[in-house]
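seq as requested:
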Amino acid sequence: MPKPLQRIREAAIDGRTQNIYYRQTQLELLNDTLVQNSEIIQQAIIHDSCNNEVEARIEYSLALLSLREQYTGLSAAKSLEEEYAIAQGRDAPDRREGVGIVYVVPTAYTMFYSVIAPLGAAIAAGNCVVLELENTLREVPNLLGRLLKGALDGDTFAIASSRVEDAHFLAGCVQVRQDGLKEPPRFTQLASTPQARVVAVVDRTANLEE
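struct tokens:
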């Protein structure tokens, strides 16, 4: 098993990401990195998708909004109360813990959002994350690879440049698949099909041809 994946497994076993202050710090570092590089990120989105500036700004803003929602959902006081409830002889029926490792496979469409949204949710829930970003000439995945490696803890976050073939490792992960590919159910717990039909609301004043 590659060393990065071994480190991820060890961190998951240690429960390193269960500490709420650790999770908050990781989300803060991620958010700060994305804010500091907002212009270059949006230009990369425009280059890869041929979208205009407004569309790139929307994708960027929605990704950061998802991070903010995950961050504001974390309460240190509540987490500590739940953690010590049993030691104090009280039940903690609402206590939740991460599954351990989340393996994220983004879609090429809205690549930036499809990486940041599940990544933020996985971190907030107390998980280690392996993100699959294949080597490509596209700007967004290459840029994200550099930024995320610099922002997040290398012991709890790793990037795989190709599909992880270790069946034992994958069996211990919850996979978030957004590429529409089908695999055995035991290896795919959360999947979305980007080719599926979606609802579109069109205002009567819209230019239908455009």
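The CA atoms of residues 3 and 9 lie 10 Å apart.
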